[in-house]
Design goal:
Layout lengths: L3 E6 L41 E8 L15 H7 L5 E3 L1 E2 L14 E9 L3 E10 L10 E7 L7 H6 L4 H6 L10 E6 L2 E9 L6 E4 L1 H9 L3 E4 L5 E8 L5 E3 L12 E3 L10 E9 L11 E2 L15 E5 L7 E3 L7 E4 L2 E4 L5 E7 L4 E8 L1 E3 L6 E7 L5 E6 L1
Amino acid sequence: MKRVVLILGLLGIFTVCALAQTALVPVSWVSWGDEPQTAEPAGQGYANVPYEKAVYVAPHTPEGWAFDPVSLDFDAAWSAIEGDAVPIAHPGRIDGGDIYDGGSTFGAEWKAMYDSAKVYVLFKYVDAFLQADDGSRAFEVCMQPFYYDRYEPDFIAAGDDITLQNNSYARYIELGGGKALFRDGFVSEYHSSVGADGLAAFGPNEIGLTKLLEDLHYWSVEPDNTIKAVFVVDIGQVLSSAIDPFGDISDPGNRVSMDPITTAEDDTIAFEVKSNATMGGSANYVEYWWSSEVNDGYASLYYNGYLILQQPTVGSVEDLNSMEVRIYLRDKTLILKDAASASMDIFSIGGQLVKSARHVNRLDVSDLDRGIYLVKLDQENKAYKFVIH
């Protein structure tokens, strides 16, 4: 079964007050008041134009598996991750030509898995006819572990101001965000908006970069010119955030880390990957995104997908028809009984995640095959059973 699904991301988060440093301020080269660019007309605001975001569900690593870049059997690790690989296929800058053909002769794809300490992102990058300039192929990996849609305090403070609302969707180092450049097995940068300084700047996430430089990754160019690589993400440091974004973000007492093994709500990361290359010169870019449809996917979370770390099975199951539950099924739509929104994860009776949505109060399930399913809400340690006839 595919581990990738498309969901309607009801994106919206927090906003920034531009006068006093009471809000985070994103990079200035993005015209935040004119977003999203993909809408017609532009400038309607991210919150008013839901974006269809890609989702990848990463399983836990197989029992007994440990990452060792020296002895790694890449093909075995790739095969151990069930489900289809994810194509990196949305054109970004393609001055050098649109040469992606599904990966038969040119193109990249990825899979991922995780354990209690690390997330392992596995890449394949095919260039069978040596079309890319020598040494130009690389990956960019964009992440934010907390406020993975938007920074809610700023979004609320923004009121009706579209620019300030959109600012809350930026990727910020204070919230653990960063964009890594991964080439030849090494990470050369991990940058994001420096929001709390009020400078509208793009700077290094020092805590994340230090750990990305310290950890060993994997990179191999095969005889057929296919790159096989593993990008290693430390959960405790790279996927950490400042508790107070306006405090000392380097103070260990002001840091919080994800805990996907034992904390149910710590399962989702704003995530994006991009394959890089040039063809016929350094200005002739050949770049493709996974979820984003514009080149500002590294600056704005709006265009990013979700990386969900699949957690252990829920503790108990209740029938959806129970009077006490928060959700009910009507005309093949799951509907919350109260007005609040929630995250919904739908599992097959065998425990496979088949559909996900974030920040919604209803979810169409008419595309599911007939059968018994479980729906899990937010961080609840139980699921609700329902039947599609």
